[in-house]
Specification:
The structure is a homodimer. The first copy, chain A, is built from 8 helices and 10 strands. By secondary structure, chain A is α/β, with parallel strands linked by helices. Chain A has 2 domains: 71 residues, Winged helix-like DNA-binding domain superfamily/Winged helix DNA-binding domain (Arc Repressor Mutant, subunit A), CATH 1.10.10; 113 residues, NAD(P)-binding Rossmann-like Domain (Rossmann fold, 3-Layer(aba) Sandwich). Chain A binds a DNA duplex through helix 3 and strand 2.
Chain lengths: 211, 211
DNA sequence: TAGATTGTTAATCGATTAACAATC
DNA sequence: TAGATTGTTAATCGATTAACAATC
């Protein structure tokens, strides 16, 4: 992370994709790759790849390209995958439970350490090795356990309240699965997963193709 | 849908958001709204909203603004929410089951009519009123049941194969939850939900804010 | 050395914002 | 009629692509 001007959101959104393709190359024991080859794989122009990477540093070598292992390490660093993060899931419905069970996030350094719900029928139930607790307990839990990320999986009518409580106890990163736009203090980042919007986009595009 | 040049993806991705905010307004019995007011709610400029809407038609009235009920109906039409769609879910793991249970998509006209998995322990199990079937049966099922949308929730190593089978039996719209980029014929549309990429974006942004 | 490929500047393209005449 | 707000054109801004000197 040598350079660092103002990275545009367009670039940031492509970083995880670079990380994924480089992880694949690494797994396949590829040593080096040029922006041209990588571009053909991902479906970007070589030019764009070089522009993107040069926002963060000079990782390549003229006449050679990029060393896969090194570039992968650099992007891991840029994304912050070298660190470990604790998350809690608020809302143990379908999506909350699915996320708690989904193990892949641990590879990205993010571990779910707590799950909370308001439904007495769910409280006490275990998902993997984590017990679902009463939703009222999460502020206390966050204070005692250095939680980095709050994952909101409650219905939209409760989402803003949960969000406010999460930020009140110091959480600075929120992954929001509720279909609303949350309001947060300036120093808090929110990443939305709006499944309904994604599905509507698909439906629109499908209708266009088929006239 | 009067006009219709080449709608940019940027505009298309905003349509579901317009739909959501207009649904809210409708629910709150708001009769009319100006691009200025709507912009303040959503966080867009008034100019952008007028530009976006004018890709599809002249829905407003000078001096008045937009009639909420009418604009909502128009956007429903543009998105294709007036029609009904049948979907099948391939892969009944955490995410597949969560999507099958999640009822909200029915409001958007999309109904899950079948779920399939390769795991014998899951086959026969019921989610809501739908029985999980053997994954080998889905091509036959698609042919007999006018399925519009294939939802891929299998592990990434199987995702391309499932995708090929879905397109082979005529599916033109794929909602992909596997963390890979699928290859499809030109007349098939794919919408990806890449949760890992979303989470990595959040982690990156959180690290930037906190230096 | 010759070939390959980078980092970076310049050119192009597209998307957003501003401005304003038209008009309800 | 006067005020408000649209639809649309023009101006600006930002992102992508192309080009090429630098250099491994």
């Amino acid at each position: 992370m040598e350079k660092k001007k103002n990275i545009s959101m367009a670039v940031i959104k492509r970083l995880p994709k670079y990380y994924r393709y480089l992880s694949d190359l690494l797994k396949n024991d590829v040593d080096r790759i040029s922006s041209k080859e990588l571009g053909e794989k991902i479906g970007f122009t070589a030019s764009q790849i070089r522009q993107d990477l040069n926002c963060f540093g000079d990782f390549g070598q003229q006449g050679y390209g990029y060393n896969v292992r090194e570039l992968h390490a650099q992007i891991s660093n840029i994304l912050g995958i070298h660190k470990k993060y604790k998350s809690i899931i608020v809302g143990a419905g379908n999506i909350g439970q699915a996320l708690a069970n989904y193990s892949n996030f641990r590879d990205l350094g993010v571990e779910a350490v707590g799950i909370f719900d308001a439904n007495p029928k769910l409280i006490g139930m275990k998902i993997r090795d984590i017990e679902i607790r009463d939703i009222d307990e999460f502020p206390e839990y966050v204070k005692n356990n250095c939680v980095d990320i709050g994952i909101i999986c409650v219905p939209s009518r409760n989402a803003q309240t949960v969000c406010d409580e999460l930020t009140a106890c110091g959480i600075k990163a929120i992954w929001n699965f509720a279909p609303i736009d949350l309001t947060t203090p300036d120093d808090v980042v929110v990443e939305n997963v709006h499944l309904s919007e994604s599905l509507l986009t698909l439906v629109y595009l499908a209708n266009q193709k088929h006239q």
